[in-house]
Amino acid sequence: MQQSIAFHHRTGIDRIKDFLRGIGIFLRLIASNRVGLLGFIMVLFFVGLSFIGPHLVPLDTKTKVSEIYVPPSWEHPLGTDHQGRDVWSQIVHGGKDILYVAFLTGLISTFIGVFFGSLSAIIGGSFDSLMSGLADVWLTIPRFPLLAVLAGFIRLDSLSLLALILGVLGWAGLFRAVRAQVFSLKERDYVEAARALDLGLGHIIFSEILPNMMSYIAINFTFAMTSAIYAQTSLVFLGLVPISTSNWGVMISLAWTRGAIFFKDSIYYIMSPIMAIALLQLALVWTGRSLEAVFNPRLRAGA
Amino acid sequence: MSKREQSLLSWTEGPEADVPLSVRDLWVEYQAQRGAVKAVRGASFDLYKGESLSLTGESGSGKTTLALSLIRLLPKSAHIRGGQIIYRRDGREYDVLTLEEGDLRQFRWKECAMVFQSALNAFNPVLKIWDQMYDTVKAHDYTDREKVRKQALELLELVQLESERVIDSYPHELSGGMRQRVLLAMSLLLNPQVIILDEPTTALDILTQRTIIELLKELKKKLGFSMIFISHDLSLAAELADRVATMYAGRIVEIGNVYDVFYHPRHPYTLGLIKAVPTVTGGFQELVSIPGSPPDLIDLPPGCAFHPRCPYADERCKQEEAELTAVTRGHLVACFHWERVQNDLGQEWQLRDQ
Amino acid sequence: MTASLASGAKLSRGGSHAAESPGVGARPASFAPSTSLIELDHVGRTFGSGKEKVRAVDNVSLTISEGDILCLVGESGCGKTTTGRIAAGLLKPTEGRVLFQGSDIWSMDRKEFKRYRRAVQIIHQDPYASLNPAHTVYKVLSAPLLRHNLVGNYAEARLKCMELLEIVDLTPPGDFLDKYPHQLSGGQRQRVSVARALTVNPSFIVADEAVSMIDVSIRASLLSMLSRLREQFGVTFLFITHDLALAKHFAWEHTIAVMYVGSIVEIAPTPELIDHPLHPYTQALLAAIPEADPRLTRSKPRVALRSMDVPSLLNLPSGCRFHPRCPQFIEGLCDQEAPELVSVGNGRYVACYRVSQV
After folding, report:
1. Which end of chain B has fewer surrounding CB within 10 Å, N or C?
2. Nearest CA in chain C to A195
């Protein structure tokens, strides 16, 4: 074969260029769905608000009796709370914990679910029956009462610990979904071809099957996050978690116990964290709409 | 009527009343993300009374879109951009494309019926065959149950099914071949003048295919309807068609009597197609492929859509698309070089003609 | 092209001669000639259990010699795809043995089985499902090369991939390497599938309806490419198809085996099968197939069948599977026990009481 091949080695610059191109493709695909784009922007906003915001907006911790439940103004965009502290600064500082736990929980439960789901579907047999049975039982466990009981035994003061527990509790749903997907994917002709080529189980799972499930996994990840947010917010609201740092859940809890819903001026105090959480959830769900496009190989190659 | 339309019609075998369906310059496009898919690009043909016409072509030829257009059963994403579908009966004629909702409903099934592929999803799985047949007919104001039942039983017998047993069965209780026959019977309920069949024998095993083919021949003779069938299978056309129309990239490139098209093809694509299809009996032949692949219907090459794959293509072909012109009586070709094809075939096709 | 793809195979001729030649046969393994590459010995496969038992393959015995082509022909649902997958070692039979160069593949040790695994490859029917949509052509072809250390580094892998693309007529190869499957046509995808199968230098390829979903006008060039593989590299083929015309064309100098509802009913050299079919099913099939030649097809004599009912795999007829439809049915014989596949000379085998009685 006399063809000359212009085959150059990949330099560092090439890798950077590839990376940037990858980001470009990612952004284009996120933008392909209007709702998804909106959701993505909102998520970015909340992330920015919660992680960069605290450096820009100092947390107001001074009690000012004269400024209790001040309605929204330039100085206090969301009014003040029952101790005269600025609500807006609390909102800015309150998202960090929520997002951190949500992300970590999502990561843990997705990882466990995907790992065991794929393994179970591929190995089949008694391992699969065992895992499926376990998952079925797991799903029937009422999560909340269990969490409440656990809170009595373990001091849930560490965010990571909370994330770990929530993650482990939530693996079963994703397990079943992934298992079903893998069952269907493993029958595909290209998987059979990989078997015939003796490419190995690892290759089949990670190279053949997983890439075709990425959008599915990503979307389930966002849902794992939303459910984690609900779970931790509820726990905090019910006072089962001794987390004292300012976060939206704590704000709701405090506002509630202080009877903030009964006063016209204090509505902002209780509604702000509720709206923040609601909007964050919405943002996550909406982003999911674009995620399918992001992980679709047809669209990525730009045919 | 334009001069070209006249010239097309003057090749009919008899007076105009014997041409129940005429299609002129039909243009159908689908809207896709990348652009407009030009599925049918100026297709024209006539359907003579009592004949069976085969619309033959490979994937992307536009044959299914064309057939669906005839009864306006296209999906929402399709737009008919131009052309006429003229239907004639008892001296009256009208353009199907201009029909309103009510008239269109009358047209469908009563004048022109379609037989889909016998897949299970052509049926409602929770309704018995009788219910589906009656529903079809009810929409056309035939409400005398007794009469319809009698007619249905007769038709089921006509398609060689045990009428009493089948009429009260559910679709999943019947085999593929039986379902195809039920669909046939259903299409005949209102005694239409034209029947369109979409790949009538695909998905059936060969022995069952044979019975369907024989049945179609017999029914056509007995009931006298005109038939259009879509197929990618050349051998089905050879078996069943009186006339064959080959389609490529949304246009009819050749149309004529089945013997003419098979033994004296004049379009390079038709010739290529015939050379690419082997026969089972009758010795060993060389199979020849047509180089290249079907064109992208969103981004068609300029001029003739077939020119990138055509051994006869020249500069003119790259700029202009030929219209259907008459080669002999009843045999039309859309190619500038049909005479060269004729000369090249000369000796070679004598053998097959015996 | 440098290395021969087959594991040192000589080409042997097809089966259109006397019975002693190493052709295709239904013989037990002990009598199989030494050049037999793949042998199915009384292979059976049942799916499901209880009431839902489906006997997809029943008592199938086949021998394919090195460098040969065996066409497995039958209608949809006759079990030919299942048989193909069993021959390729992708499905384990419920009865019988699958022998590769004389050894039972399901009793092999790991090393031997790995060798077998790579020697036998499969090409699937559906070009839209045979390639992973998330992989470029380069990734598809380089994965086996890299995994099995058939190349030293990425540069070599890229070169080898281009060589393979040239073998399957995808030129210029550089144009195709970085494409995704959805950017290729059906015919091009099938060629990539073939190239993928060739990466591991197989000696045996199972082509399961490999051209059935390809446009008619492109089939011939794909088939000639496959034939060329056989001539150049000595690859043995099991060519599965429902289209007898295709089988005739691809295996003209070789052998066809006809399957009906899970069993083999006839094996013969192609020209003989076409001209003088012996089994009533083969006869009915040949008579029923429409031909792409109006005069030929309209003047073909038809074979009338006793019944139009297609047998269901869940409720098989007793004895010979074809007896309810067979025009040559012998009452009391054909509906009692299924006939065995017996040799009738000249490399022909038929499973029919009528034929073997004569």
Report:
1. C
2. C90
Asked if the peptide bond before residue A273 counts as cis, ω within 30 degrees of 0, the response is no
Residue A69 belongs to a domain:
no
Q: How many interchain CB pairs under 8 A, A with C?
A: 87
Distance CA B271, CA B269 (A): 5
Q: Which of B204, B260, B281, B286 to mutate to test the interface with C (most CBs of C within 10 A)?
A: B281
- Inter-chain residue contact A193 with C193, CB threshold 8 Å: yes
In-domain check, residue A109: yes
CATH homologous superfamily for the domain C29-133+180-357: P-loop containing nucleotide triphosphate hydrolases (3.40.50.300)
Helix axes A267-294, A34-51, angle to 10 degrees: 130
Q: What is the mean pLDDT of chain B?
A: 86
Look up the domain containing A120 and give its range: 99-247+270-300
Residue A176 belongs to a domain: yes
- Domain CATH number, residue A197: 1.10.3720.10
Three-state DSSP string of A76-126: CCCCECCCCCEHHHHHHHHHHHHHHHHHHHHHHHHHHHHHHHHHHHHHCHH
How confident is residue B15, by pLDDT bands cut at 50, 70 and 90? low
Interchain pair C245, B239: CB under 8 A:
no
Give the nearest chain C residue to B274 (CA atoms). C292
Q: Sort out which chain B residues have CB atoms less than 8 A from C309's CB and list them.
A: 175
Neighbours of chain B (3+ CB pairs under 8 A): C
pLDDT at residue A243, as a whole number:
66
Express each pLDDT in C265-275 by its tens digit: 999 999 999 99
Geometric angle at alpha carbon A140, from A136 and A142, rounded to 5°: 150
Residue B286 C-alpha from the chain's centroid:
29
| d(C-alpha A128, C-alpha A122), whole Å | 8
C-alpha C183: how far from chain center: 29
CA distance C5 to C202: 6
The tens digit of pLDDT for each residue in B285-344 reads 788 888 888 888 988 999 999 999 999 989 999 998 998 988 888 899 999 999 888 888
Establish if B282 touches chain C: CB-CB under 8 angstroms: yes
Q: How many CB pairs under 8 A join B and C?
A: 136
Q: How far is C171 from chain B (nearest CA, A)?
A: 12
B contacts of C186 (beta carbons < 8 Å)? 59
Give the pTM.
Answer: 0.82
Number of domains in chain A: 1
CB of B210 less than 8 A from some CB of C: yes
Contact C279, C342 (CB under 8 A): no
Weakest-pLDDT range from B225-229, C158-162, C328-332: C328-332
> What 3-state class would DSSP assign to C71?
strand
* Residue C332 and residue C355 in contact, taking contact as beta carbons nearer than 8 Å: no
Residues in chain A: 303
CA A215, CA A238: separation in Å to the nearest integer? 35
Residues 49-108 of C with CB under 8 A from B: 75-77
Closest CA to B187 of B219, B217, B165, B150: B219
Beta-carbon separation of A208 and C132 below 8 A: yes
User: CA B192, CA B207: separation in Å to the nearest integer?
Assistant: 28
Amino acid at A185: L
Q: Nearest CA to B337 among B315, B301, B312?
A: B312
* B contact residues 299-318, partner C, Cβ 8 Å cutoff: none
A83 lies in some domain: no
Contact B16, B43 (CB under 8 A): no
Q: How far is CA A126 from CA A114, A121, B175, C34, C106, in A?
A: 19, 11, 37, 41, 22
Q: Is A202 on the interface with C (CB under 8 A)?
A: no
Strands B251-257 and B331-333: antiparallel
